[in-house]
Design a protein that fits this description.
A hairpin with a 3-residue loop joins β1 and β2. The protein has one domain. The mean pLDDT is about 90. The radius of gyration is 17 Å and the shape is globular. It has about 150 residues and is an alpha+beta fold.
């Protein structure tokens, strides 16, 4: 029963984040743009990872990411700790959404460009969800009592 609960939460979080992210990206792929004082919402295809790093890997990058996503999934399945199910699902859903972009669009669909005070990277909803999930998972590892409480 615990396994069913774990996999249900993991899968629902994964699918939810994937669907939300892809629908946001669809709006920008269809031509939506907004230019503001601090934030521009404009379509950019990122061929690398954060800050366009590793763009030189070109086609190999998506297979490297697929390997890492598979590793994260395998680790979560190995642990099968319920407290990791939701943040793990968020992480995997966001990562798979960005990987899907690489296969379908040739690069990750980014659209949020912050430029108030300094130029920041262009990012998307999935990138934010990856940051949230990683912070959440780190917190669970730093404070193991939080995991046992659930």
């Amino acid at each position: 029963m615990r396994s069913v609960r774990f996999f249900s939460v993991l899968l629902l979080a994964l699918i939810g984040v994937f669907i939300i992210d892809q629908n946001i990206k669809k709006i920008f792929l269809e031509g939506y743009r907004y230019y503001g004082d601090c934030i521009d919402l404009t379509l950019v295809f990122n061929k690398g990872v954060a800050f366009s790093m590793f763009a030189f890997l070109e086609e190999k990058l998506k297979y490297i990411q697929l390997f890492f996503i598979t590793g994260v999934l395998a680790y979560l399945v190995y642990l099968k700790k319920f407290c990791y199910a939701f943040p793990g699902g968020i992480l995997l859903g966001a990562a798979i959404s960005n990987l899907y972009d690489r296969f379908v669009h040739g690069g990750v669909v980014d659209m949020v460009y912050w430029h108030c005070g300094f130029d920041f990277a262009v990012f998307n909803f999935a990138d934010v969800m990856i940051d949230v999930a990683v912070a959440w998972l780190l917190l669970l590892n730093v404070k193991p009592a939080l995991c046992k409480a659930s």
